[in-house]
Structures are given as structure tokens and as C-alpha cells.
Design brief:
alpha+beta; 2 domains; three-stranded antiparallel β-sheet; 5 strands
Length: about 180
């Protein structure tokens, strides 16, 4: 069965260009769900030119509250244990957290810009990988993967994503 997840970054871009809160992204997310969509998709960027991180947290909080009212209990690792903070979406944030944790050496950062399972037969991906020196934040190695990854043996989208990440990691480290 085909599922619909509505991407709301363009609504955020429109809101940002107007100033204020029009359109209201939380109301839009609720309306989209009420109209029958199976999900809400956002792709935050480090420069926040589309959706902002504060929008993502507000939408997450709103959905947790609504699901809680329906009897579901939602908890994320960072909510239960301080050892699991929310991960940063950029290399500068990752090195800052590593320094705060008194780590040394390198940090491996992955930034997913696009990850879409078009069908269970392939996944379209745009992912940046970086190896960053913690002490000065210098990027010592980086690679971008942008392609459709065939997943012919997958029986569902979850398996297609798993097969795709295995292919990407194999290409990065064994290829």
C-alpha cells in the first residue's frame, strides 16, 4: 500500500519570507494528519533557511502530546537518559559536543540531506560523510553520496532503507 508523507519545508520557507507565524506549521501538521496523510516530512538544514530546529521540536512535542492523549507513550533516548543528548546536524556541533565530553581525536559526522524510499526496490539518498578533527574542527576527509541505491531483495521500505545503508557503508569503507 502506498503511504503519503507530506513535506512541509516549503510551508516553513513561506512563513519565513512573510515573517511571523503564517502559515502556522503546527496547525498545518495537524491538518495534514487530519486529512489522512501517514506522516509529516521535514529536512532541517544547519542554516535553518527552511524549517527551523525550533519548529521540529515544537512539532515533535505537539505530536507526543496528541499521541499521549490517545493512550500512546512516546519517549526518546535523550528524554530518558542524559547520556543520550540529541545529536547535532552539523560538524561544528558534533565537535563542540566532543570537546565538551573531553574527547580527543576525530569525530565521524553524517549529515542526511535526503533519504527517500521511492519504492521497496530503491532508495534515493543524498548524504555527506565527514571525518573531523576534534581539537580544531578541521575536516580531514569527506565524501558525498548522491544516488538511487537499488534494493531488489527488499520486501518493504524498512528493509530497503537497511539494505541501502549497508550498500553506502560498504562503498565508503570497503570499496
Amino acid at each position: 500500500m502506498t503511504k503519503l508523507s507530506v513535506h512541509i519545508n516549503k510551508l516553513a520557507t513561506l512563513r519565513n519570507s512573510r515573517g511571523g507565524n503564517n502559515p502556522d506549521l503546527i496547525k498545518a501538521a495537524k491538518d495534514i494528519e487530519a486529512f489522512g496523510a501517514d506522516g509529516i516530512t521535514v529536512h532541517p538544514r544547519p542554516d535553518e533557511r527552511h524549517i527551523r530546529y525550533t519548529d521540529v521540536f515544537a512539532i515533535k512535542q505537539n505530536l507526543q502530546t496528541e499521541l499521549g492523549q490517545k493512550g500512546f507513550q512516546i519517549s526518546l533516548p535523550e528524554d530518558k537518559d542524559a547520556r543520550f543528548p540529541a545529536f547535532p546536524a552539523d560538524s561544528a556541533g558534533a565537535t563542540r559536543i566532543a570537546r565538551e565530553g573531553k574527547l580527543s581525536g576525530m569525530v565521524f559526522v553524517t549529515e542526511i540531506w535526503r533519504w527517500e524510499g521511492e519504492t521497496q526496490k530503491f532508495v534515493r539518498a543524498l548524504v555527506d560523510f565527514k571525518l573531523v578533527r576534534i581539537d580544531d574542527g578541521a575536516i580531514v576527509w569527506e565524501r558525498r553520496v548522491q544516488r538511487a541505491i537499488p534494493t531488489p531483495s527488499a520486501t518493504n521500505l524498512g528493509q530497503a532503507s537497511t539494505d541501502a545503508i549497508k550498500t553506502i557503508l560498504h562503498d565508503l569503507f570497503a570499496g
